[in-house]
Amino acid sequence: MIYNNTGTAQTAAILPLIKEHRTLMFGPVTGASVFRETFHPQVFHVRAGYANEASKIVSQLRQQGVSRVAVFYQDDGLGKTLAAELKKASDDEKLPFIAEIKVNPQQPDFAAAAAATEKAQPQAVIVATAGATFTHYIKAVQLTAARPAYYGFSVASLDVINRELKEKSRGIILAQIMPSLRNTTIPVVAEYLSLLRAKSPAAQPSASQFEGFVHARLLVEGLRRAGRNLTTESFTKAMEDAGEISFGRFNVKYSPKNHNGSTYVELAIVDAEGSLRY
Questions:
Q1: By CB atoms within 10 Å of each CB, which of 45, 150, 173, 214 scores lowest?
Q2: How far apart are CA 266 and CA 278, in angstroms?
Q3: Which CATH superfamily is domain 2-49+185-266 in?
């Protein structure tokens, strides 16, 4: 079994191998629809897909009456994937984008992207990228007269955002595919925090670490249900026959025709302390 494989390109690269060797890929850290729209019986997703995140963001903007929305992305695999999901959500919500702005990953011109944003004068920009590209773009726009709200996907790292933008990160809104670590009424959150404190009292809870913990909890649940004589087939059947597996507000469900797992998405805003508030 391949567990918690990270990245869309990495997942695509090993997909032929798991088919050839009849092994399982459990909890890949990618939300790309290419792995979900086509059913892959050896793949068990846990997190919601980018399509779920895009739908949540665009729906929220439409419900708030925001009509001038722009999209920024880096012209690479991740950026194109996220932009495509946003286009579908835009069509579904009948909220056309007023501008689509991109940068070349080899020679990104953030000043030009910021100028294009200022010219478009959006009320909100959906930043469809991650890492330093996310923060470099926002820094560049903050040097102009444009003052849009910023929305991002779950792949945007809060740690990077806080480190690079500091107090200017306040108000950025990010899609999240796991429950809030502040909500200790959710059993899986309380369990994670309790175990973390027991192991290292000074450790700071991490959203990425928490996602890995949820993946591990679900994997262990599947192994338990599969029983002693574990095989690829017995694990697959156990997960498909389990019905809904609930960890409080976070639920997953598999079937013989669908291994997409969770559809849980919430929007969280970065507060004055650099934390996410749901």
A1: 173
A2: 7
A3: Response regulator (3.40.50.2300)
